[in-house]
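Structure ticket #2291
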Amino acid sequence: MNCESQAPNGRKAPNAQRGQSLIIFLLLLPVLLAFLALVLDGSYLYLNRAWVQTAADAGALAGAVSECNGGDPLPAARQYVEANGAELDDFEDLYPDEYRVRVVAAIPVRTLFGAVLGFDVVTVRAAAGAEYVPGACQSTHLYE
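Resolution: structure written out below.
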């Protein structure tokens, strides 16, 4: 059996064409790895975004309940944000104009492949707000 490559017209293919697919693969390999890194880091950051959003929601609810009961909303918000593994990045108490608190939680996330591009750590943030009706709160605990 003859293993030489042949062109469609029956003639032998020139030797310059041999190994062409290997070169194309090696040239495209960094592009494929970049897409893989983007997908893995992007999904990991998105997962952490959901986690931080939970912490921000808990902090906003705790702050609103604390203020509704006449307490200071900042320590309650910080406690619930930190209990969910995040840091309190920003806090806004809109009292007395509005009966609302706003919490921004953040968490630093180490990337898997982003270090190659200079993104070792990315800070993921999420914001949440909670309103309350004055006098409607009767509990000192969030889920009592």
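Closing remark: DSSP finds two helices and three strands in the chain.
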